[in-house]
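User: Okay, second chain of the day. Same drill as before: sequence in, structure tokens out.
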Amino acid sequence: MEDTKQKLEALGPQINRILQISGSPGLSLGVLHKGITHTAHYGHRNAIDTAPANDDTS
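Assistant: Same drill. Structure tokens below.
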């Protein structure tokens, strides 16, 4: 379980770079592994709201 979380967190710099290149304001993602959901959030909720993306971002 911890290994999955660490691997997801390690992708942060690459995901942030992709957001910069694409112009996307943010990204929220989830990985279901062995019955446990791991989430990660990058950037902002949307282009207008500078609040960070979180579990409630749609």
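The mean pLDDT is 89.

User: Thanks, on to the next one.
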